[in-house]
Design a protein that fits this description.
Arc Repressor Mutant, subunit A; Jelly Rolls; globular; 7 helices; disordered N terminus; alpha+beta; five-stranded antiparallel sheet; homodimer; DNA-binding
DNA sequence: CGGGTGATTGAGCCCGCTCAACTCTCGTGG
DNA sequence: CCACGAGAGTTGAGCGGGCTCAATCACCCG
């Protein structure tokens, strides 16, 4: 595992901090590994089952967490975008593997710091619970998608989720490959590709390059009401 | 919603308490609705989106939580057995519906009591986080099942999970219907039934009545090593 | 302009679904 | 005690959505 540590604070770091109102302990809590580590595309950040001694916050880039079966079948549990926390475990070991989807800068915190902060502050302890519950809610919704939705519904739901997490205006920039999308949605990459083509031919969206999508239909723009 | 409140402590309650070593706040925290409410088979305990003002602990019976799509497609997120807590939300509303699978006795706690306990005790706050994370780990494993496993693998995993949660000896008693199993595994009830028949014909198990199963193959007895 | 990775598209198949008939179980009442 | 009915489970036949395998295309670097 290669970890490059930045020794000087890059200009982006301040910008990222601005972008999110910090009610979090992670705003105060100093990250011991400097301002952030950089992980290259597809580089592993931690592996499932490893000792969960660090907690991470995405500063730039995107991270995926996933589980594997013996024969290589993969299920991506979640994508993490700037501002998101991952690797936060009350137990001893990580329950999934984390990798950088694209080159990513992450803040690294020591597990014991988090625990210490939670021991001295009820607000922090409450926030840990709250974050775990948010992840659980996402997982419950995703189980409904994986267990009961059609390929078309899954891809539509994915586009809505990505557009909500991206900036505004109906333009979605997908940082991940078709294979990543497929492994997130429980489909094959061919089915994802076909479904996107189908949505384009029906006028629901416009692909401009495989990873840039302009949403056209009202249905795919569920998040447009938020924050004009 | 019909809630019958027991006014006298039934003999089973003490037995249930013995069955689980209580490190939990829920052992100390008095449940304000007496010793337990009884819910009839298929009776709703709370609905998705309702105000999450109560937390529940199963004393007897089994509970399911699930989400629905508009057209009735259902995904069961989890089954809760005696000793399990459900309905524990940091947010305002329940994220899924809860129903009794069979007639169930549950202890009922007020949300504000839990929050008060968490505010005065780090151990309690830590336990809330830990329970949420356990549920999240279960959900992550279930996403892998729903997104990537075959029907046979799903049914096998279900039997292993149920045998782990039941008592010992390779005998599994299924309290839920084939439809419940199917909605938990992301299959149809016919596929569940066919797969069980297939496992029986291959000698992996023996059905004695639809809801009583004797596990035969080593593969389906993953939990046998635990607690002789 | 050429090489390589990622994405798209096509053809055919198969696993799990749909629709339907039958069986089993169990409770209820004669 | 048996007859009956209703709900749950099983089994069968056929279909189809998404998968597999494969070829082609698009884009990005050099």
């Amino acid at each position: 595992m290669i970890v490059q540590t930045q020794t000087t604070r890059p200009p982006q770091a301040a910008k990222v901090a601005d972008a999110k109102v910090e009610i979090s302990i992670f705003a105060d809590c100093p990250d011991v590994i400097g301002v952030g580590s950089i992980y290259q595309q597809n580089e592993e950040i931690y592996g499932e089952g490893e000792l969960a001694d660090q907690v991470y916050k995405v500063l730039r880039g995107v991270v995926r967490t996933y589980k594997l079966l013996d024969d290589g079948r993969r299920q991506i549990a979640a994508f993490y975008f700037p501002g998101d926390i991952f690797g936060l475990e009350p137990g001893e070991n990580y329950s999934a593997t984390a990798e950088a989807v694209v080159i990513a800068q992450v803040a690294v915190f020591q597990r014991r710091q988090i625990h210490a902060a939670a021991s001295s502050s009820i607000e922090v302890a409450r926030e840990l619970w709250s974050r775990a519950a948010q992840n659980l809610h996402h997982a419950e919704s995703h189980m409904l998608l994986l267990g009961r939705k059609t390929a078309l519904e899954r891809v539509e739901a994915f586009l809505v989720e990505m557009s909500q997490r991206s900036q505004r205006s109906g333009h979605v920039n997908l940082p991940m490959s078709r294979r990543d999308i497929a492994d997130y949605l429980g489909l094959t990459l061919e089915t994802v590709s076909r479904t996107l083509s189908q949505l384009q031919s029906e006028g629901g969206l416009q692909l401009s390059g495989a990873r840039r999508i302009e949403l056209r239909s009202r249905k795919l723009m569920g998040a447009m009401a938020t924050a004009a």
